[in-house]
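user: can you give me the structure for this one chain? tokens are fine.
assistant: on it. calling the predictor now.
[tool input]
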Amino acid sequence: MTSELTRRDRRPGPSVRTRVVEYAGEARLEHEDRLATEEPLEIRLAWPGAPARRVAVTMRTPGHDFELAVGWLVHERVIEPARIAAVRYCTDTDLSPLEQFNVVTVEVTSPPLRVPGARDVSSACGVCGKESIADAVGGPLPRVSDFQVPLDVVRGLPDRLREEQAGFARTGGLHAAGLFEVDGTRVVVREDVGRHNAVDKAVGAVLLEPRAVPGVLVLSGRVGFELVQKAVVSGIGLVVAVGAPSSLAVALAQESGVGVVGFTRPDRCVVYAGDQRLGV
């Protein structure tokens, strides 16, 4: 088996620099921070007599991409390890900048055990299964409406969310997503083993009433691209989280006008996008 890597110096790293605004107590601090890189990886499969074809798209942190592609194909019972002939980054001349080093082709010596569709991806990610890199990132998205949330309200939201996490209290194994009004009023909280599922449940509950989706989404963990994507599509203007966002989540938030606040505690929070969303 052989591996091939070209233009190594242009390969994305596992983290990227960003500028943030941190509110610690009464102080407002501007400084540099680092975000975990999040980018889509397209997995292609090729065998004798068949051109390379897309079989999956998943979000990941760049690094060990060949291992990820091979592991996924073997775990999904698409190929047998002994049949692997080569793994390499795709070097098609028509690749967009986003796709460079984000497309891996695995060549096998015989036809696969099965040919999965792109929607067979099993990782816990709301955009896994999109049919192309461009679909995963999405097309033009509407900008959300402008509003401000008082800083003290923002910093208190995770505690309000935790009060409604009965499933987590019993099991310790569930994520939570809550929708709140700009004054901190809780509208709905839902739990699930998947972050994206919890958000879908919360938004779905509001839409089934039916009523307008509130402006603030609160998350019990980190903020991935797919969660900001759901916020933008639903018209949510501020995402508040206990953990940190990824690089692609922040990029989408900045492009769409969504505020993203991470590491939110009663005495601290870090604003990665949309500082104007906070009333201070």
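assistant: here you go. Residues 1-9, 120-124 have pLDDT under 50 and may be disordered. The helical segments are 65-75, 133-137, 151-162, 166-171, 195-207, 225-234, 247-256.
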